[in-house]
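Quick look at the format.
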Amino acid sequence: MNSNISIRDYSDFVDAVTSNPSKDVDVFVERILELSQSGVNIPRLMTGANGICSEAGEFMEIVKKILFQGKPLNEDNVFHMKRELGDIMFYWINACIALNLDPMAVVQENFNKLSARYPDGFSITRSENRAVGDI
């Protein structure tokens, strides 16, 4: 592998490995219309996915500033984190609605998955060496 890759070469590489729906609005719209036939509310799913990531970033920004930049861990900042967690929940519920999932069924599935992974509580070994199918 060439260790002296130019930014132009890297740009060409990125373009070559990027999907057509990511690069072409017409192909993207065609894909959205195709997926809309699935019974999943694609605009709501996109809203949920984008919102979860955006709000998680806002939550992490507060945590980062507390941990690494001297921001105080005080009542105001805990309240700010509480509000960001509420925003994450808002978008999480949107994603559940988009996928026709009962939010409590999602919570139950997560409980079942983690209970099977960690039957005796957290374990580094079980965290790093998962059973087949444990995603």
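Next, a different chain entirely:
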Amino acid sequence: MFARGRRFQARLWTIALLGAAVFGLFGLPMAGPASAQASPIKHIVVLYLENHSFDNVLGFWCDDHPGRCPLGGMRSGSGMPSRVRLSNGAVVRPSVSPDVVPAIDHSVGGQQAAVDDGKMDGWWKVGGCGPPDYRCISGYRPSQIPNLTALANAFAISDATFSMADSPSWGGHLYAVAGSLDHFTGDIPFRAAGVPPLNGWGCDSDLVTWWVSPQGTIRLIPSCIPDFSLGLPNGGAFEPTPAKHIPTIMDRLNAKGLSWRLYGQPTNGPGYVWDICPSFAECLDTRQRANNVPAPQVITDARTGRLPNFSIITPGWGHARDSEHNGASMTAGDNWVGQIASAIMHGPGWRSTVLFITWDDCGCFYDHVPPGLSPDGSSQGPRSPLVIVSPWARHGFTDTTATTFEGILAFTEKTFGLSPLAVNDAKAYPFTRAFNLAQPRLGPVPMVTRPVPRGEHINMNELNQDT
């Protein structure tokens, strides 16, 4: 596994170096390191949507823009492969996904089965993706997601950003702020024997999930990152826990006197399971919780010039239906992408803002590029789509340097002079090549709002279960 990951990383570096040579050959400008001049970026916003792979969202777009997807073309020559050969012998032609996202298993086990140790041929084993339909081997046409398409056309994308781990939403939302799973597998929490469940998935849920001790023993413990310095029983968990406190990007920002918000679902309701704050006792049970606010507030803050230095948006407070989760409408989700991007692009803080649009796990939809290893030695998960929207993003540029979500944390740390949280963000590539701080500023692009197709339905119970 280690050898496979290292060989793949070596191939990615080769591609990156060839790309650099091509840029130099044709006299195109290359981005220098962010430290070469004072950064104009004062606001970093992460829109963290639900459950899609790179090929599922941008594969067909890459077919129309083959020069923008060199990594995606390693095997197929463009973006979405014309045929997919699976380990059961089936040869499947990728289909066009329906507006309501198909229900596909995206547990840790499902993702590992799909990746099949880098062969990328086990998708038929994933629940909801068996024969004859193979619904997870599919993607969205650019016309189905016009706002994301317009942003990808005008700004920068990464075609080499992977999930930090084979984990669904709970784990993905841990490493989004901590750069680590804290020895949890990342699987979705569930009811403990004889313990009535409460709201959400985190420290106030009384749920449990799988945790791996440093010695390799797997056991069930509370789905909570405790903080024993708070003086709460069990560090904020509902029962004794061996999990340790780990720092977050919020801690680093606080120490530097910088502002932050977690836009999501701060109280019980649709989307509370995706909210990041409740999984950390330090956030849930301290004054940090005041920075956990309803998702719609980001639009107001962007329009009025009140964006904090760093923020993550998870779907909630009326926007759970816009999450693009399995069972949700992609039209509704793309409308929400457009609303957020438009508010930022037309707000007074545009010239000092970068918006990263990405997804928390594969969903689990087909992707053909094998993941590598994270710096901590753990296996990465499938590729995630990532679009970088900023006046300082390179126009029509694709960053091919391999990284994970932790590249966003690394970008934040380098921009604001923060110390890394863990080895994964300390060694992550921070999207340096995707920016040119000396270029004329890019301007806004038009966004659209479309009616959700008649007859579409949203299964909110399915969204809340996230399985």
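The chain has two domains: 2-81+139-180+246-465, 183-243.

See the schema section for token definitions.
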